[in-house]
Write a structure and sequence with these properties.
Blueprint: H1 11-27, E1 31-35, H2 41-46, E2 56-61, H3 65-72, H4 76-80, H5 87-99, E3 105-111, E4 124-131, E5 136-142, H6 148-167
Parallel strand pairs: 1-2, 1-3
Antiparallel strand pairs: 3-4, 4-5
Helix pairs in contact: 1-6
Length: about 180
């Protein structure tokens, strides 16, 4: 169970975090995060379990284009076209988090948690998961206009699902 957010984390998210961290610890896998619209929520969840701190390497909260470029090396050209909320930028964020850390796996999230500029789609979010010496996978979700908190919670669920698929896939059958 998460420790500093008891009662605030839905049971399914809490259970996913616990399973991911247990598996990461057993496999000596370190995780990094690169977050925009979640503002550090994923890192917070992954650092909230006593005894599992060695599974989390670092987190990048990169809300602005400048931060994405400076801290993760996301090319300015991608930030201009197709733009910060895109598959290309999500992939570059995850890969940048790996190259700027000692983590084995990095997850990224970039999207519109609420109303953006005219023409932006509320709830449109791109995710990417990169593994050192592996492929980077992408997922896009359209959560709709469910509010900032609702989108952030759904982002947490999606990130945990992606991490679980990547990290827990190597677990023996029966877990």
């Amino acid at each position: 169970m998460t420790e500093t957010l008891p009662g605030d984390v839905p049971d399914d998210v809490d259970a996913a975090v616990m399973r991911i961290l247990k598996s990461a610890c057993e496999q000596e896998i370190m995780i990094a995060t690169a977050e925009s619209c979640t503002g550090g929520l994923i890192a917070s969840l992954l650092t909230d379990v006593t005894g599992c701190s060695h599974a989390f390497e670092r987190g990048f909260v990169v809300y602005t284009n400048e931060a994405k470029n400076e801290l993760l090396g996301v090319p300015e050209a991608l930030l201009e076209d197709p733009g910060p909320v895109s598959e290309e930028v999500a992939r570059a964020m995850a890969e940048g988090a790996l190259s700027h850390s000692s983590a084995h796996v990095a997850i990224s999230v970039t999207g519109f948690a609420g109303a953006g500029a005219p023409g932006d789609e509320p709830g449109l979010v791109h995710f990417a998961l990169a593994r050192r010496d592996g492929q980077t996978i992408h997922r896009m979700e359209r959560f709709g206009d469910i509010g900032r908190g609702g989108v952030r919670l759904e982002c947490a669920r999606t990130c945990m699902s992606m991490l679980r698929e990547e990290i827990c896939a190597a677990e023996p059958v029966g877990r």
